[in-house]
Amino acid sequence: MIGRAIQRAGKYPAAVLAGARAKSASSGVRTPRETADAVVIGAGVVGLSVARELARRGRDVLVVEAAPTFGTGTSSRNSEVIHAGIYYSPKSLKANLCVRGRELLYRYCYDRGIPYKQLGKLIVATSSAEMPKLEQILGRGLENGVHDLRMLESSQAMGMEPELQCVQALLSPSSGIIDSHSLMLSLVGEAENYGATFCYKSTVIGGHFEDNTLHLQFSESKDLGNYDEESPLEPQLIIVPKIVINSAGLSALPLAKRFQGLDHGFISSPFYARGCYFMLSMMKAPFSRLIYPIPEDGGLGVHVTLDLNGQVKFGPDVEWIDGVDDISSFLNRFDYSVKSDRSARFYPEIRKYFPKLSDGSLVPGYSGIRPKLSGQGQPPADFVIQGEEIHGISGLVNLFGIESPGLTSSLAIAEYVASMLGV
């Protein structure tokens, strides 16, 4: 796949590349190498947005993805919610990029006919003890520039959503839902129209610096999948780009630690939090809006979302994961199973705001993994977008901890990265 992608870009014939690999493997000849203008590592929604933006601004972009297609990781395993920008610390990247990203995303979807719906959201307090937290969320949202928020008494909120139980609620009219696959498909198409090349089933396994330039090390994903972890991890190809965007999502931090010569003091430890979703069956959809409880440690609580077909889902919860090795993160070898008995934890949480939830009405849905920069019991971390001014390496941008609201922020992150690079 690496060779074919480069061949499509007109840079290096696949047959020559394959022959060079075979010769290198048999005789110890130096690993074949090529040059490139801009390489985006990772074809999730953020990587796709960055690739489209750089290509739109005239850069020759190669997108490298370990999976067989785009968006198979976190980008396809989330709530598909367009966030307003309420929860995040004022002046943080999450706050600024979410508010800007939401504006860009609604406009992008409207202009291109991508399915979305501005449903609105109710954040609910289910006890008097939670009411001060709701006031704090309101204040933070207003400070972030979300000016359409409105506090509702219980009678007002339950009048809008008759199945809801709460003592107070915060209405966010600008929250919504989106068909994330259609969004990513559009981003891929536009990036290709601007000249970007996509290379799937190919993994960036590390890199090293020569003359302040990052040399990326590549392996075919199928070969990496057979790696025994005992012998050295040898690259099959080296590409030397002018620009590198590390948008590898769940593997962004482990990959950066494999960039020999990059100061690891700028690379924090990764934390992984699995979130499971359960679908509502045997009942008519009880709500017409998104319903969110007060946020919890590691997430926004077990909330109600709807997809564009009206399917109701509850989640995600938070389950911290330890012991993820680099290869597993590169190849997205996470456990995404949803055990039916986990629903026992969902029923009491959901019934705080939806008391009529019937026993046996939840069925396993899907799960996702959050790439987090803070662990259990720690304050939520901001996005980390590192450029040369931080780590000192020209042309390298690391995107760390791009969890929620990453989908909402994706187009704004792309603008931000392009601006950092002076593109």
UniProtKB/TrEMBL annotation:
Residue intervals of the FAD dependent oxidoreductase domain: 37-419
MF terms from GO for this chain are: (S)-2-hydroxyglutarate dehydrogenase activity
Catalytic activity of the protein? (S)-2-hydroxyglutarate + A = 2-oxoglutarate + AH2
Can the keyword Oxidoreductase be found in this entry's annotation? Answer: yes
What's the top EC group for this one? oxidoreductase
State the superkingdom. Eukaryota
Co-factor(s): FAD
Task: Tell me the SUPFAM superfamilies matching this sequence.
Answer: FAD/NAD(P)-binding domain
Keywords of this entry: FAD, Flavoprotein, Oxidoreductase
Q: Which Pfam families is this protein grouped with?
A: DAO
Locate the transmembrane regions by residue number.
none
Q: What is its EC number?
A: 1.1.99.2
Question: What protein family is recorded?
Answer: Belongs to the L2HGDH family.
Q: Which protein is depicted?
A: L-2-hydroxyglutarate dehydrogenase, mitochondrial
Organism, by scientific name, is Apostasia shenzhenica
Write the lineage as a comma-separated list.
Eukaryota, Viridiplantae, Streptophyta, Embryophyta, Tracheophyta
